[in-house]
Amino acid sequence: MLTIQFEKQNRTIQVEPGTNLREAAISNKVGIYQHIFKILNCRGRGLCSSCRVEVVAGDVAPRNEVEENNLKKAIAKNPNLRLACQIQVEDNLVIRSHV
After folding, report:
1. What is the rounded distance in angstroms from the CA atom of residue 95 to the CA atom of residue 82?
2. H/E segment holding residue 57
3. C-alpha 26: how far from its chain's center?
């Protein structure tokens, strides 16, 4: 089992390796969406970038093409930004959401 610590929510959850970060957060009732995006989001397809998170600690696979396209401007300011819907958890992580 791996752990994901969500800094802003002050919650730590355990997941199996290979679990999608967005799905893990939702199934453990950890809110990663802000405001209206709790309802209006792309449901994990990587299209809206409303599940943007910062990986504070831990290793994740390199960004895929979907993330590169949707986070182009934001990455210039913060290279640790990722889309939760595109991350497969393979290491213990510390995540800062609502960035």
Report:
1. 10
2. strand 52-57
3. 11
Q: What is the CATH number of domain 2-97?
A: 3.10.20.30
* CA dihedral sign of residues 47, 74, 57, 98: negative
Radius of gyration of the chain (CA): 12
pLDDT in tens, 50-80: 889 999 999 999 989 988 888 888 887 888 9
Q: Sketch the domain layout of the chain as residue ranges.
A: 2-97
pTM above 0.90, yes or no: no
Amino acid identity at 80: N
Residue with structure tokens 């002050």?
10
**Pairing, β 2-6 against β 93-97:** parallel
